[in-house]
Amino acid sequence: MKKLAATTAFSLIEITLALGIAAFCLLTVFALVPIAVLANRNATSQTAATNIMAAVIADMRAAETTGSPSQQYGITFGTSKTLYFDGGGQAMTLLGPNSRYRVSITFPLSPSGLSYADINTTWPAAADPATTTPSGSAEMFAAFKTN
Q1: How far apart are CA 46 and CA 131, in angstroms?
Q2: Can you give the pLDDT of all 147 residues of the chain as single tens digits?
Q3: Close Cβ partners of 47 (under 8 Å, ≥ 6 residues apart)
Q4: 119 is in which domain, residue-wise?
Q5: Max CA pair span of the chain
Q6: How far apart, in whole angstroms, are the C-alpha atoms of residue 121 and residue 103?
Q7: For residues 106 and 118, what is the distance between their CA atoms, to the nearest angstrom?
Q8: How far apart are CA 63 and CA 45, in angstroms?
Q9: What is d(CA 133, CA 83) in angstroms, rounded to the nearest whole number?
């Protein structure tokens, strides 16, 4: 007599249970995608704002000993100024349709011989931080020796 080989397979209950577990895991992962996209967008905006502020400070440092306005952005020490930047980091003096970042430069009172600048960047540029809460902001404080 010949012995038949037993065939092994998954039952319908096991397949249904495995598909249910896989679906639950996939739904959980897909639910995290919007959070990851938001975190990525915030990190990108924060990095761009920091790079813009570093460029503004570098421009001010280049002009700190001449007493004249800075060459690239026209910032005069002691005079508050607001600049607007597009997504590529290009500066503009007026709020336009391509403006993405608002950079406010103020000069707090300081001891003689030193000049301090508070550079505050907010986005979107159209959201005035005096009247509304912007979706993001970054701030730097810099000291200059202007004598």
Answers
A1: 21
A2: 666 666 788 899 999 999 999 999 999 999 999 999 999 999 999 999 999 999 999 999 888 766 788 889 999 888 899 999 998 889 988 998 999 999 999 988 876 667 889 999 999 998 888 899 898 999 999 988 765
A3: none
A4: 14-145
A5: 109
A6: 4
A7: 5
A8: 27
A9: 18
Total structural domains within the chain: 1
Structural domain includes residue 1: no
CB 65, CB 146: distance < 8 Å: yes
Q: Is residue 4 part of a domain?
A: no
Which one-letter amino acid corresponds to residue 65? T
My answer on whether omega of the bond before 69 falls inside 30° of 0, hence cis, is no
Please state, as a whole number, how many other Cβ atoms lie within 10 Å of the Cβ of residue 100.
Answer: 19
| pTM beyond 0.85, yes or no | no
Q: Where are the beta strands (DSSP E) in 16-132?
A: 81-86, 91-92, 99-106, 114-123
